[in-house]
């Protein structure tokens, strides 16, 4: 009887091993795909897609839907900049962490908690830029316009700081770059003006403004006049 049971179990085990090996190979292939280095390019974005994703990110941020924010940040890095899935996830997590740290802050000291994840964010972004920029400076400048906007600065003012961040990241500084920053800031100011009364038509208008901003950024990068 024992021999019969043993003879039945052994073939089952032999049939199980190919399945286990196949699963292991599948997991290894997925991990390799996620981590395999890509050639990211921060200039490869499509303005309309960036505008749609950014408007969605803003909405998720103000509605405190951080999973949705993470998803859209991932899509920007993966689909628009061509980072690997793993790097895209790291970028998305760093950016979402910075936003989540900044949102409840009420003082500059509290807002500074967003700086470490911003440094992580920009340090990963360097792989997609031909400019060798100062990561810490980019993070500080990014946080500076977040704070300036919160403190009531005009969009024409903090928009130029937005442009400074882009100039650092891309190594390009021209009039179109400055205009792109200001138009993006104007879209933010429109959202701030609407506040809790914002509706679908407003989000559509914001996406249109952002499309114009990213079209200007593309123009700035095509000129590449320092």
Structure write-up:
By secondary structure, the protein is mainly alpha-helical. The chain folds into two domains: 1-36; 37-223, no CATH class. Helices cover 77% and strands 0% of the residues. The chain has helices at 2-35, 47-62, 66-80, 85-102, 108-111, 115-125, 135-150, 155-170, 175-194, 200-223. The radius of gyration is 23 Å and the shape is globular. The termini are far apart.
In short:
With 226 residues, the protein is mainly alpha-helical.
Summarize the SSE layout with pairings.
Layout: H1 2-35, H2 47-62, H3 66-80, H4 85-102, H5 108-111, H6 115-125, H7 135-150, H8 155-170, H9 175-194, H10 200-223
Q: Which tags fit this structure?
A:
about 230 residues, mainly alpha, 2 domains, 10 helices
Q: Mean pLDDT, as a whole number?
A: 87
Helix content percent band: over 70%
SS element count, helices: 10
Question: Number of domains in the coordinates?
Answer: 2
What's the main sheet like? none
The radius of gyration over CA amounts to: 23 Å
Oligomer: single chain
Label the structural class.
Answer: mainly alpha
- The general outline is globular
Order of helices and strands: HHHHHHHHHH
